[in-house]
Amino acid sequence: MMKEGEHPFEPFRMKTVEHISLTTRGQRQQALEQAGYNLFNLPADKVMIDLLTDSGTGAMSDEQWASLMRGDESYAGSRSSQRLSESVNRIFGFKYFLPTHQGRAAEGILATCLLKEGDLVPSNTHFDTTAANILARGGTPTNLVIDASKDPNDPNPFKGDIDIERLDEFLEKHQSRVPFCMVTVTNNAGGGQPVSLSNIEKIHNLCNAYEIPFFIDACRFAENAWLIKQREPGYENWTVESIAHRMFSLSDGATFSAKKDALVNIGGLLLMNDEKLYQNAKNELILREGFPSYGGLAGRDIDAMATGLIEGVDEGYLAYRTGQVKWLHDELKNRGVPVLSPPGGHAVYIDAGAVLPHIPATDFPAQALTVEMYLEGGVRTVEIGSVMLSFISPENGKLVTPLLELIRLALPRRTYTESHLRHVIETAVSIVEKAQEINGMEIIEAPELLRHFSAKFCWKNSVSPTR
Ligand code: F0G
Questions:
Q1: In the CATH scheme, what is the homologous superfamily, with its name and number, of domain 25-54+314-459?
Q2: Mutate to test the pocket of ligand 1, among 110, 130, 219 (most ligand atoms within 8 A of CB)
Q3: pLDDT in the model for residue 462
């Protein structure tokens, strides 16, 4: 059903639709001013195509809606928690798990249980919430992704891999200060790029040698497993489920935001093999999330997650899903928009540094590009550059900036069609054509941690010439 160069056939049809409000450029300009030029502050009804995130924004299936009705709201021992256990054990295979209201709650509990001030946590690239949870407890997140990840055009099929040599050196030098290692699959902050199974095997071996626990940030494990099946020699004939099993069997646990590959609007998991950690994490969970049968969720959310976990590893769905991302990537690239290649699993990343080479990182080129994409076509994207990812290192007080200034076009699952994405493509192409006229931005106010969610901006040279 998938021909080269064509948008993939959707393996579903619509049963419920959601209205999109069409806006004028003038209305969008006004909305931007009110939002302090931060797209997180926009009212959603002023957005025509919302590619801000693929997290919790997908369409649930009829089976998942049926699961909501079936949800058992018993405080303890509910049938829904039993169904979740069955799905979780089938997919992940860890000894213990706890549901949480979303991924960052699992990260927060893990950091509380394992981390102390002065600790270091290496990963390929920590996502912002993971980094913030480590920083908030006095630790330092360290990113050790391979060099190919720095080059937006490097064809390496696994640009999410950790640089094993650097990890080895890092662990040798800091062993006593590393409470656990992580790897993010797929590597969201580094372009949604997959991590290979051979890399995960090597991380596992190193962590074993240094006796350091190894956790997977498993948000997009199904997309990662599918890309392993497509790209890593030797796994062509493996099922996505068996690849996922292999990945998880090489680790000691995982944090998981179910809002991605479990196809639900809310939910998360903390998974582990160590019983002592489980007991401590359970106490933390009861303190802040809820009883282990429901975490911070309603029984119906738990039930929808149980169903979504199984739908998320369906290979027909994953072929469509990653095929749609690839189609958008290829169309943009063919039309001269600089994108990060090869395409990842959940999003297309435009290289804002290449679109706006006249704007230095300190003037936030990627933020400027998100603002222009909205103004031009009502398309909401997200900055993954110096606004989101730079921070002052507690180690040495220096500013740590990201490798690339990117904007992410995250595709909500099972939500937008080819014609929606054609509008996105036309919007991006028209911005690239007038890129020299776009100014940098500056921050007017921002909190210390996770500043991209609420910072306010203005154009660097008073008013951008594009308006
Ligand atoms: N880890 C990764 C790799 C993520 O992408 C996210 C969320 C989280 C952890 C935290 O999960 O939102 O359920 O608390 N990413 C969203 C995004 C917000 O837009 O990429 P959460």
A1: Aspartate Aminotransferase, domain 1 (3.90.1150.10)
A2: 219
A3: 53
Q: What distance in Å separates the CA atoms of residue 407 and residue 385, rounded to the nearest whole number?
A: 7
CB atoms within 10 A of CB 281: 26
Give 278-320 pLDDT, tens digit per residue.
999 999 999 999 999 999 999 999 999 999 999 999 999 999 9
pLDDT tens-digit readout, 182-208: 999 999 988 899 999 999 999 999 999
CATH of 62-311, one of 3.40.640.10, 1.20.210.10, 3.40.50.1820, 3.40.50.150: 3.40.640.10
Query: In angstroms, rounded to a whole number, what is the distance separating the alpha carbons of residues 221 and 248?
Result: 9
Q: How far apart are the C-alpha atoms of 190 and 4, rounded to whole Å? A: 26
Domain ranges, ordered by start, for the chain:
25-54+314-459, 62-311
Pick from 227, 308, 226: nearest CA to 261: 308
Q: Count of residues for the chain? A: 467
pTM above 0.90, yes or no: yes
> 167 and 146 in contact (C-beta within 8 Å)?
no
Residue nearest to atom 15 of ligand 1 (CA): 55
